TrEMBL record:
Protein name: Chalcone isomerase domain-containing protein
Lineage, opening ranks: Eukaryota, Viridiplantae, Streptophyta, Embryophyta, Tracheophyta
Keywords linked to the UniProt accession: Coiled coil
GO MF term set: chalcone isomerase activity
Coiled-coil stretches: 293-334
GO biological process: flavonoid biosynthetic process
Domain named Chalcone isomerase: residues: 94-296
InterPro entries for this protein: CFI (IPR044164), Chalcone_isomerase (IPR016087)
PANTHER family from the UniProt entry: CHALCONE--FLAVANONE ISOMERASE 1-RELATED, CHALCONE--FLAVONONE ISOMERASE 1-RELATED
Pfam families assigned: Chalcone
Length: 342
C-alpha cells in the first residue's frame, strides 16, 4: 500500500488558535514516517504540547527510527493567533489638569476610557477666562454601539453633528464626567446654572413633570453646602438605567462611592447634554471627543476586518483538519492490512 504524504504551505503564524489532535493506537504504524509527515505542520507553530500515555515515553517523537520505541499517543499543536490589539488612546492634559486614559468610576465596577477632554470658559472683556477642565469617559461598549451609525465619519463630520453627540448622551453605555475647577466655584453657583438650563429646556419641549421637579430639588440639595477650590472636582456617573451618581473630590483621586444617587433619566442625560450637546458649554471637549472617537471607530473597523479574515482562515483550517483525520484513518487501515499479512 502506497500513501503519499500531504504537504502544507499555509502561513501558520497568521492563523487563529487551532488544536490538531492525532491519535496513534497501534504500535505497528511506521512511526518515523508519521512524525516526519507531521513535522512540517508543527515546526513553525509557537509551541507544541506533547502528551504521553505510555510508560516508556519517546521525548522527541520525530527522532524515533524503530518500531521498538513507543511514541506519545497524542500530539497537540497549538497555533497562537496574532490578535489585533484593542484600541487605546493616551491621556489628555487640559490647562495643567491631567485626565488619565482610563479610570474606575464611583457607583460602578467598570473601567471607562477617556473619550475626550477640554476647557470650559467665557470671553470676558476681550479675554478668554477658563473656569473648569472637563473630561468625558465612556464604557468600552460605546465604540461598537456608535460604529453602527458613525463608522467611517471623519473627526470634522462628527464634531459638526448634533445627532452624534446626542447618541453619546443617550447611548446604552456608562458615561463618567469629571469637572475639575480651574477657578474656585461654590456648589450653589454650579447647581443653579445647571438646573436653570435643564428646566428651561424641559419646559420648552413639554417634558417637565413632577418627577423632574423632584429630581431638581435633590440635585440642588446635594450641592447646597459644597465649595470647590481650584483642583477639586465634581464627578458624575451616568448609568444606562437612568441613575446619576454624584461625587466630589478635593484632588485628582476618584472616590469608590458617590455622595448621592438621583434616579431620573432626563436629569442624568441633561448633565452631559449641557456639556457636549447643541449648546454645550465646552466646544473644546466636543472637538476632543469627536477626534478621539473617530480614531477608535477607525481602529474598530480595521479590527473587524482582520477578525473576518481570521474567521475565514479558521474555517479553512477546520476543513484541512478533517482531511488530516481522514488520512489517519487510511494509515490505520493500511497498518491493519500489513499486520494481517504477517
Amino acid at each position: 500500500m502506497s500513501i503519499e504524504p500531504l504537504t502544507s504551505t499555509r502561513n501558520w503564524e497568521s492563523c487563529p488558535t487551532v488544536s490538531t489532535h492525532v491519535a496513534f493506537q497501534s504500535t505497528h504504524v511506521n512511526h518515523n514516517y508519521l512524525f516526519n509527515f507531521y513535522l512540517p505542520l508543527i515546526a513553525t507553530v509557537d509551541h507544541v504540547t506533547i502528551t504521553n500515555q505510555t510508560s516508556d515515553p519517546c521525548i522527541k517523537p520525530w527522532a524515533c527510527h524503530t518500531q521498538n520505541q513507543t511514541p506519545p499517543r497524542t500530539v497537540t499543536t497549538n497555533i497562537l493567533a496574532k490578535m489585533v490589539p484593542a484600541p487605546s488612546l493616551a491621556g489628555v492634559h487640559v490647562d495643567n489638569v491631567a485626565f488619565q486614559p482610563t479610570t474606575k468610576v464611583p457607583g460602578s465596577d467598570k473601567t471607562l476610557f477617556l473619550g475626550g477632554a477640554g476647557v470650559r470658559g467665557l470671553e470676558i472683556q476681550g479675554n478668554f477666562v477658563k473656569f473648569t477642565a472637563i473630561g468625558v469617559y465612556l464604557e468600552d461598549t460605546a465604540v461598537p454601539s456608535l460604529s453602527i451609525k458613525w463608522s467611517g465619519k471623519s473627526a470634522d463630520e462628527l464634531s459638526e453633528s448634533v445627532e452624534f453627540f446626542r447618541d453619546i448622551v443617550t447611548g446604552p453605555f456608562e458615561k463618567f464626567i469629571r469637572v475639575t475647577m480651574i477657578l474656585p466655584l461654590t456648589g450653589h453657583q454650579y447647581s443653579e446654572k445647571v438646573t436653570e438650563n435643564c428646566v428651561a429646556f424641559w419646559k420648552s419641549v413639554g417634558i417637565y413633570t413632577d418627577a423632574e421637579a423632584k429630581a431638581i430639588e435633590e440635585f440642588l440639595k446635594v450641592f447646597k453646602d459644597e465649595k470647590f477650590p481650584p483642583g477639586s472636582s465634581i464627578l458624575f456617573t451616568q448609568s444606562p438605567n437612568g441613575s446619576l451618581t454624584i461625587s466630589f473630590s478635593k484632588d485628582e483621586s476618584i472616590p469608590e462611592s458617590g455622595n448621592a444617587v438621583i434616579k431620573n433619566k432626563l436629569l442624568s442625560e441633561a448633565v452631559l447634554e449641557s456639556i457636549i450637546g447643541k449648546h454645550g458649554v465646552s466646544p473644546a471637549a466636543k472637538k476632543s471627543l469627536a477626534t478621539r472617537v473617530s480614531e477608535l471607530l477607525k481602529d474598530s473597523n480595521d479590527k473587524e476586518a482582520e477578525n473576518q479574515k481570521l474567521m475565514a482562515e479558521n474555517q479553512k483550517l477546520k476543513v484541512e483538519n478533517q482531511k488530516l483525520e481522514a488520512e489517519i484513518k487510511i494509515l490505520k487501515a493500511g497498518n491493519s492490512e500489513i499486520g494481517g499479512h504477517k
